[in-house]
Amino acid sequence: MRRLQHLRPADGATKSRLRRGCGRGSGQGGTSGKGHKGQKARTQVNPWFEGGQMPIQRRLTHRGFNNARFARTYQVVNVGQLNRFDDDTVVTPDLLKESGLVSSRQRPVKILGRGSLEKRVTVCAHAFSASASGAISAAGGAIEVLD
Q: 0.70 cut: is pTM over it?
């Protein structure tokens, strides 16, 4: 019965390690298969070394860090657009999505101050501009900042 510990490669499937520099009878004595002299016959050359030519990491331009990939992008709603809701309504991102003012529930919402607000509403959003929070509180409403 065969067992896992008795398995071994088939005959001829593996070769023994080449022992370089072990005399002429090994076939790899003398120069150890490196030919005569030259840069490649000596110690290892770095793979990125280009023979003294200006290396590619110095030929190509390098620009600085850009923070755009980590910037937080808000969905913008203006204060004037909140007049469509009734008095004493709690305006949440879900309600804004249902009414078509924002396109996604996952992305954060920011309220900006363009327009005038005649309704008294409580607005829940991720960010408010100073003019928007002033306009909402002037109309008798309240703001609530979400995380």
A: no
